[in-house]
Amino acid sequence: MLAELAAVHKKPAREPAGSAPPERGALGAYDGELNEAGQRHGKGTMRFPSGESYEGEWQEGKAHGSGKFRYKSGAEYEGEWNSNVKEGWGTLRLPSGRVAYKGEWLSDQRCGRGKFAYPDGSMYDGQWAANMRSGHGTFSFANGAAYDGGYSGGRKDGPGTYTFPNGFAQVSVHEAGRPTGKGARWSVDREQAWRLKDGKVEGTFAEPVLGEITVPLGIAEQLAAKVGLEAPPRRGVEAPAVPSRTEALV
Fold it and tell me: Which DSSP string corresponds to 29-66?
């Protein structure tokens, strides 16, 4: 797609400034506005021989501003462009019409704040860098589990809170995707707590159940505070919402 847009830029149509008639050739067909140099400039539609197309704003022969690119597969990107690359705010839809990603882009990659919907029904809402989860984000798993915390290079990194499908929750510090060091885990009603080491309840390898050795809630809160987090709220009690441009993803 970038190669085709670049080729269009290298060989601009030599037409008078203003609204151009449809132009057809090896690069495809263009219908839209041109500048005095004959470059695509303003609003216009380019249809490529591959079956792909770009409809939107142009600047000196390049896709620039707001526009929609339709891929041969039927997927489409609609949003902001900067010199033929996706840059700014935009939405990527699959051929089915379902939104795959809605958020910020930089140099044709997911970068900044955005929400990504995975095929299995999982969802990530948070920071991105170079197409990978990086920074703070929330990953909601298809099985009902959720992780809220730091990421680096696509893996959990730094403090984070993980909520199990059954409602138990824990706080830990992560390195390279794995919990490490001290942490704490709470029961569904948050009335019981367990001390963790490297993601496991100290003294047992089993899932915490009633009757196992617990620690006072105050100690668990202190363990959470040491990693820079608060004790998780009870199930069904939501934390204060943070306004996000990605809330409208459907």
Answer: EEEEEE-TTS-EEEEEEEE-TTS-EEEEEEETTEEEEE
